[in-house]
């Protein structure tokens, strides 16, 4: 059988240089070997993306996140609740890029050194499992917290004054502690680490093997936050449109507030929509792969074995392909900030930090930095003096 097949066993990576057993012949029939050679160019492309491509994403992501953190934590910037969330998000993204993705690349590219150290140390493997879980979840649930805050501010404008940087800090701490406690389950339970997209062999562990936990992980990391973000974004857009319509009916000077609302919404939609766009394909493939591997699994003697395995291989490497793009979530926020509602302030602060000249009209709001500003949606004091007040604002001033 093997002599008549155009693809030999030695062309299969896992079988190269190995004495072929009867079990190997059953696992790798001729049709499956031919399929592997056909899909190998795509596999090599994905491997290149997840090694060299990921390294570039990590390097650039660390640089741009560091710049974002420096800009967002300037004295005149950190009085915004939004900037509080985004500065913490930049830190978490840096940690995720380093401890999750870069370590994954090192383990995959150095199986006899770096990954061997992990395999020989139960503690190191457990630590890495906790860290991977922790920082992946921290970033997305901070975005959820940010989204909910924006909704509260648009839906209940009278409560916006309570959304202070101090409360945002409490929210960040609460989310961080909750996710950290949840991630500690990795100390006792091992899930799906044996099928890393970076291709390294999993650690031998004495922890309880609970592969079903992947279902909960995919839901908690993908579908639940995506549902929350999309739902709240939709409600925010509808609420702003409704408010704009009401203001136009009440006063012709209402455009000032609607513009600030629109600016805040653009920032929200940019950050949260980027997350949804980049994680949704990965979530769909992960979910499909899980369902396929568990519901369609057949033995090597089954007539549908080759069909099952070819589909399984396609799904595995498609997941790895979309995982590469998912990593951009942790590196592109700098560009989103520059083009967001805070573009002028962010760019001006960045130019000043880099030593470039800044126009005086772009610096007027900096002189007002001693005036407390509780959230980004509120315009700077210099802007307020130039904007006609709505009837609602006049009532507040007279109160």
From TrEMBL:
InterPro entries: GPCR-Ligand_Int (IPR052954), GPCR_Rhodpsn (IPR000276), GPCR_Rhodpsn_7TM (IPR017452). The keyword Transmembrane helix applies. One of its GO terms (molecular function) is G protein-coupled receptor activity. It holds the Pfam family 7tm_1. Residues 64-337 form the G-protein coupled receptors family 1 profile domain. Belongs to the G-protein coupled receptor 1 family. This is Neuromedin-U receptor 1. It comes from Magallana gigas (Pacific oyster).
